[in-house]
C-alpha cells in the first residue's frame, strides 16, 4: 500500500540539471546574497570582441533564448559533464542524442530562470560569484574538482552566475505556494483488478462499513490517505472525485494505470500544508512555470 500511495503522489523533479554544481550551489546559495535592484536589468546577448577588430562578434551558440545566446562551448562542456556523471552512476548505455536533448532542455530552463530573476531586479555581481567560489574552495579541493568535472575557470564563473540567478527565481516560485490550502481527508479502497474493485463496491452498496472494506484490501493502513491538497495526487480522476464529493461521499470505481480506486471524503477544511505536501506543490509550481515559459518564450535551437 505504501508503494501505491507513493504512486498517487506527484513524483516529479522539475528542477534544472546542472551536474554536481547544482548540489554545491543549491546547498548554500542563500549564504551569498545577490543584489536586488529596484530597476529590472536588461538581458544582453553574449558578445566577445576580437583582438584585431573593434566589432563585437556573436559567440557561437547552442540556442538563443529570448535573444540571449547560450554559448555552444558551455553547452558542450555541460554535455560532457552529464555523460561523465552518468558513467559515474554506472549508466554506461546512454544514447547521445537523448543526452543532448536532456542537457539542452535543462540549460534552456536554467537560462529562463536566470532571465526571470534579472527581470525581477536580481543582480549577481562579480564579487558575489567570487565569494561563492571562495566558499567552495573552503569546502572542497576546488581545483581538483574542476579538473575532474572538466570546468575551466570561465566555465565555472559562467555556470555559478547563472545558477545563483536561477536559485533566486526558484525561491520566488516556491514562495508563491501558500502555507495554508483547502484539503480533503481521504480513505480509499484500492484493488489491483477490476473484479476486486467490483466486489468491494457490491459490499459497500450492501451497507458494509467503508473502513471495514478498506481494511480488507489494505490490512496495514486501511486505505487511509490522510489530508491532501489539490495538486498533490498524481492521478487526476482520483483528485477530481475527491474535491467534488461532499464530506461522507463515496466515488464510483476509478480506473488508473496502477489499479482501481474507490475513495471516500472523510472531511474537508482549510489546513496548513505538511512539509511534504508543500514541497510537492512547490516542485509542481516550478514544473508548471517552466512549461509555461518554454511555451511563451522565443527559443531557437542551433545545435542538433
Describe the structure.
50% of the residues lie in helices and 19% in strands. The N terminus is likely disordered. 30% of the residues are buried. The protein is built from eleven helices and eleven strands. The longest helix is centred in the middle third of the chain and has 24 residues. With 304 residues, the protein is of the alpha+beta class. It has a four-stranded antiparallel beta sheet with strand order 8-7-10-9. The protein has a three-stranded antiparallel beta sheet with strand order 5-4-11. The protein has a two-stranded antiparallel sheet with strand order 1-6.
**Secondary structure: helix percent:** 40-55%
Order of helices and strands: HHEEEEEHHEHHHEHHEHEEHE
- Secondary structure category: alpha+beta
Strand content: 15-25%
Q: Which architecture of the largest domain per CATH?
A: Orthogonal Bundle
CATH class membership of the largest domain: Mainly Alpha
Strand order of the largest sheet: 8-7-10-9
Number of DSSP helical runs:
11
Q: What number of structural domains do the residues give?
A: 2
Oligomer: single chain
| Poorly predicted segments | 1-30, 37-55
What name does the CATH topology of the largest domain carry?
Triger factor/SurA peptide-binding fold
Number of strands: 11
Biggest pleated-sheet summary: 4 strands, antiparallel
| pLDDT averaged residue by residue | 85
- Name of the CATH homologous superfamily of the largest domain: Porin chaperone SurA, peptide-binding domain
The coarse silhouette is elongated
Distance N to C terminus: 44 Å
- Please tell me how large the radius of gyration is: 25 Å
Amino acid at each position: 500500500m505504501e508503494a501505491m500511495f507513493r504512486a498517487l503522489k506527484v513524483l516529479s523533479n522539475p528542477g534544472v540539471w546542472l551536474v554536481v554544481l547544482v548540489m554545491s550551489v543549491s546547498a548554500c546559495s542563500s549564504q551569498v546574497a545577490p543584489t536586488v535592484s529596484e530597476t529590472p536589468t536588461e538581458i544582453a546577448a553574449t558578445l566577445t570582441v576580437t583582438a584585431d577588430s573593434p566589432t563585437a562578434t556573436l559567440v557561437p551558440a547552442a540556442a538563443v533564448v529570448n535573444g540571449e545566446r547560450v554559448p555552444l562551448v558551455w553547452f558542450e562542456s555541460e554535455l560532457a559533464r552529464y555523460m561523465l556523471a552518468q558513467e559515474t552512476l554506472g549508466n554506461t548505455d546512454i544514447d547521445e542524442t537523448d543526452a543532448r536533448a536532456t542537457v539542452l532542455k535543462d540549460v534552456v530552463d536554467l537560462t529562463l530562470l536566470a532571465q526571470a530573476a534579472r527581470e525581477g531586479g536580481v543582480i549577481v555581481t562579480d564579487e558575489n560569484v567570487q565569494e561563492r567560489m571562495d566558499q567552495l574552495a573552503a569546502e572542497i579541493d576546488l581545483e581538483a574538482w574542476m579538473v575532474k568535472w572538466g570546468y575551466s575557470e570561465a566555465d565555472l564563473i559562467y555556470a555559478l552566475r547563472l545558477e545563483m540567478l536561477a536559485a533566486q527565481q526558484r525561491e520566488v516560485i516556491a514562495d508563491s505556494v501558500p502555507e495554508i490550502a483547502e484539503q480533503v481527508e481521504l480513505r480509499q479502497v484500492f484493488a489491483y483488478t477490476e473484479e476486486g474493485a467490483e466486489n468491494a463496491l457490491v459490499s459497500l452498496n450492501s451497507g458494509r462499513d467503508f473502513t471495514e472494506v478498506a481494511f480488507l484490501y489494505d490490512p496495514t493502513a486501511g486505505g487511509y490517505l490522510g489530508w491532501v491538497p489539490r495538486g498533490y495526487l498524481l492521478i487526476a480522476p482520483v483528485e477530481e472525485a475527491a474535491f467534488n464529493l461532499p464530506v461522507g461521499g463515496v466515488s464510483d470505481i476509478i480506473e488508473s494505470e496502477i489499479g482501481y480506486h474507490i475513495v471516500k471524503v472523510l472531511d474537508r477544511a482549510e489546513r496548513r500544508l505538511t512539509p511534504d505536501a508543500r514541497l510537492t506543490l512547490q516542485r509542481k509550481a516550478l514544473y508548471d512555470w517552466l512549461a509555461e515559459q518554454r511555451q511563451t518564450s522565443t527559443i531557437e535551437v542551433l545545435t542538433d
